[in-house]
Amino acid sequence: MTAFESVSKGLEEALAFADGNMTAAKVHEVSVVDVDVAEVRQRTGLSQAEFARSIGVAKGTLLNWEHGRRHPTGPAQVLLALIAKKPSVVQDLLRGA
């Protein structure tokens, strides 16, 4: 199958899915655990401002997460789960860049 054919097939599946036809598309669901953002940040040893900057979010966003007013979703949730497992992961990657 050529790259064009592969992309075309993927687009056809996406259109079918958007129309409600679940039989023509593969649906992948990923579950990411919720983390205690304040605890994760504290384990890194960074201040709120430093931690927010290191993960590319505004300090206000981090404060909202830490105080439970909002919850991280999508890529931020995945990144925080990674940091929970290995607190130095961001610094290790940025140092190597």
TrEMBL record:
SMART domains, sorted: HTH_XRE
Record bears the keyword Transcription regulation: yes
Protein's name in the database: Antitoxin igA-2
Highest taxon, organism lineage: Bacteria
CDD domains listed in its UniProt record: HTH_XRE (cd00093)
InterPro entries hit by this protein: Cro/C1-type_HTH, HTH-type_reg/antitoxin, Lambda_DNA-bd_dom_sf
Key words, A-Z: DNA-binding, Transcription, Transcription regulation
Molecular-function annotations in GO: DNA binding
Domain HTH cro/C1-type: 37-73
Pfam family, one: HTH_3
